[in-house]
Amino acid sequence: MFWVATMPTAFANILLDIGEPGLSSQALGVSGDGSVVVGVESGEIVRAIPFKYEDGKRIVLSTLKPEKTTFVTGVSEDGSIIVGMSSIGSGMYHAVKWDNDVLIDLGTLSTGVDSEAQAISADGRVIVGNASEELGITVAVKWENDAIAVLPYAEGGAQSFANAVSGDGSIIVGTSITPEWLSSAVKWEKDTATFLGTLGGNVAIAVGISKDGKTIIGSSETDRAEVHGYAYTNGTMQDLGTLGGIYSLAKGISADGKVIVGEATISTHQRHAFQYVNGTMIDLGTLGGEESSANAISTDGKIIVGRAQTAGGEWHAFICPTQVKDTTSTVVDSDSSIHSRQARSTMVDVENTYVSLRHQRKALASSLNQQSTILQNALDSGSLESRHGSSIVAPLLHGNYSRLNTLNFSLFGGAFLNQRCQAVNNFYLKQNNAWTGAFLGWQASQASKASLRFSFGYGCQDVVLTREQLSYTEKGLGNSSFTSMGGQFEGRYNVALKEDVAIQSCVGLRLMSISRLGYTENDVFLPVHYDNFAYSAVTGFAGTCLKALVMPNMAMSFTMGIEQDFASHVDDFSGSMKVLGRFTFQNREHSMRPFGSLVLNYNLPKHQQLKTTFLMNQQPLNGGTNLVSNGSYCINF
């Protein structure tokens, strides 16, 4: 949504903005295969709105109370169960889960009034979180088969919080709070609480665990009074370092524990999302703003989700495909503080990507109108009324015969080659290949007054299609082709106003079918695949044409009329994107449309002719006014 004049310092991965304009959003969880992302958003009303993002669509989740704040905190591996907490009013919340989008209240302890769910096991069987007891004391709890149970207190602990659970639900991690309000990282296994220690300081918290339960992540105070993220494996707590600042927090981990994500401060104290892999912390950057944070990673370690600031200062949820690069380096200062830096890369904004896709749909509608116009010109070719400026476009077959004294019959046919025809909004269409086709028709006329005409045409064109590039998006390029065919039956009646001027009324029926072959973009990190697209219509039309001979060799015709679709079919503009899944934009049809045209014909020696056409009409798919200009060279045989 925001254009950026200069690119900020780039980063080793690609951030994808999945936010909505005017909203502050944050992704808080992702399913095992990355197909479902969950999070919260807020707009002008200061409250959290839960959502999930699946198959390219944002779905708002239901709440316990209308217009009340609701948070989502986790999602099962297959994406079918989402957990969180929903406000019931008076500042209290209940733990909830959405099972296939159906909201279920998980309730509270019998002695408490509120609860919250923080995480869910991979199979969705175990949910962990916190609940209040008497006197407002908070304790770690778990729900198994929707039944709530309190986890054992750690030694010396006064309160406890459960933050994450292993894939099979057997190990739970969180934090224990002492009466002195010091926090300690703790894990619960087989109903036993175990402290994890620190990085040399006094406090630590545990916020995540790998699916296999072997690696625990969080943050701890160091012996230098800094707060660093850590990875706890086999009884050892490893310092993950920072991005040049004094703070980091590990918040998400892949199933095998090899990829860790979170947030860390850079040297200028802003927080940036990071990816930690192979002993190196990689700065994921932002969406053009100052700060970002990675909240979770898919179990397969391929998809990172979180939030980042845009250039306008808004917080948007992002998706970041993980990508291990050899461009990073690790620096260890003399004081043993670990920092990381990275090389330049590219960032992709999904919000702007979807804007470019909407523009692509408009461009497609314009190009279909362009193809229709070229085919209509072919269907109108072959007329014998050269006195008023009509022409034959390279006719290969042409003959007259009559069995009645009052009727003339004409048979005509030919081929056409259109190298260039420009339409509004088809800026993405590189017409490096000619639009070729053929036409065939039959006409009966009576004493230059009335005529009946039937014609058929077919054409095709290979094209190179380029997606419009907005800030933080890619310029996708792909090869496709258009195919058009149509038939037209038309009746006309001429009235001569004077020797070189005539007015002509027309009415007719046209059948048109245009299709574009599906294609996939090349040479981009996130290629878009576009499905096949087809449009067809049976259209009636009526109009009036003024024809005049303005010079001995030059004729002009001006036409105005209206057309009405009696039957039509149009496909949705749809496709899919790597990582984000499918997208669909519905096309709205306009069945009744005005049209107008101006045609100039200039006769050259030896049966040659130059023809220029200007057409203005309303596009059938988006209703916009369309301007098409076309120049052609005609030769009569």
For the report, how would you describe the main beta sheet? 13 strands, antiparallel
Distance between the termini: 56 Å
Overall pLDDT level: 79
Strand content: over 45%
Give the structural class.
mainly beta
CATH-defined topology of the domain at 352-635: Lipocalin
Could you tell me the radius of gyration in angstroms? 34 Å
Helix content: under 10%
Q: From the 3D coordinates, which CATH architecture of the domain at 352-635 would you assign? A: Beta Barrel
Number of strands: 47
User: Which regions contain 5 or more consecutive residues with pLDDT less than 50?
Assistant: 1-14, 326-346, 382-405, 422-428
What coarse outline follows from CA principal-axis ratios?
Answer: elongated
Give the helix tally.
Answer: 1
What is the CATH level 1 assignment of the domain at 352-635? Mainly Beta
Overview in brief:
This protein is mostly beta strands. It has a domain at 352-635: Lipocalin.
Question: How would you characterize this protein structure?
Answer:
5% of the residues lie in helices and 59% in strands. With 637 residues, it is mainly β. The chain has a domain at 352-635: Lipocalin. The strands form ten sheets. Strands 31, 32, 33, 34, 35, 36, 37, 38, 41, 42, 45, 46 and 47 form a 13-stranded antiparallel β-sheet that branches. A hairpin with a 5-residue loop joins strand 14 (159-165) and strand 15. Residues 1-14, 326-346, 382-405 and 422-428 have low confidence and may be disordered. This is Autotransporter domain-containing protein.
